[in-house]
Amino acid sequence: MAIPSLRPDPPKLNGKSILVVDDESGIRDLVCDYLGRDGFRVSQAVSGLEALSKLKAEDTSLVILDVALPEMDGFSVLAELRRHSDLPVILLTGRAEESDRILGLELGADDYVLKPFSPRELAARVRNLLKRHYRVEGAKGRHEFGDLVIDTKTREVTEEGEPVDLTPKEFELLEFLCTSPRQVFSKEQLLDHVWDSAPE
Question: In sequence order, what are the beta bridge partners of 145?
Fold first, then answer.
């Protein structure tokens, strides 16, 4: 009997967690309102130090980071973040100087938005950046099929955030199916590829 392969979903954006870092409450509230309408989970930070603390404690999918922050500016936060993470970052700034934009991009920002900005445009940039980022993550070895996440590098599988226990052969079979999207395989083909023991 033929076994249908897993069909990968496009990157799921609903439920992704966005951290909005800005010391202006009006901007934070506006951005959070628009992103909340799009189905994102949104948290807030008012300073660079608070942002780094939340990034360590919370599961975050993308950061919207103001450059002019108290205690620790956005460039310093970005530099610290890039020491251990490739999390997508959009910088917000009221500075129009080219040198500031270049500095932000060289430090690893993924996008740059000048104030004042359209919240609808910012929300669109968030969606597009997340789609690109998580599509690349899949190519690197992370595959998402609805609530099922398969990491072929760490050989870990989770469903709705909970680990799934698999034997080595079960994982190899799952890995083979998820790396061969939209294909149908016979039992013999699966045995040949995974077990190397197709029956005669």
Answer: 148
Amino acid at 127: R
Contact 119, 34 (CB under 8 A): yes
What is the 8-class DSSP label of residue 47? Answer: S
Q: Find out whether 91 and 62 touch, Cβ atoms under 8 Å.
A: no
Which residue, among 173, 172, 175, has the nearest Cα to 187 in the 3D structure? 173
**pLDDT tens digits for the chain (200 residues)?**
344 444 444 445 556 889 999 999 999 999 999 999 888 889 999 999 999 999 988 888 899 999 999 889 999 999 999 888 888 999 998 877 888 888 888 898 989 899 889 988 999 899 888 887 766 555 556 777 777 888 877 888 888 888 898 888 888 888 777 766 556 677 777 776 666 544 44
Q: pTM here?
A: 0.63
Return d(Cα 192, Cα 172) in angstroms, integer: 12
CB of 88 closer than 8 Å to CB of 71: no
Q: Which domains does the chain have, with CATH numbers?
A: 17-137 (3.40.50.2300), 142-195 (1.10.10.10)
Cα–Cα distance between 83 and 136 in angstroms, integer? 20
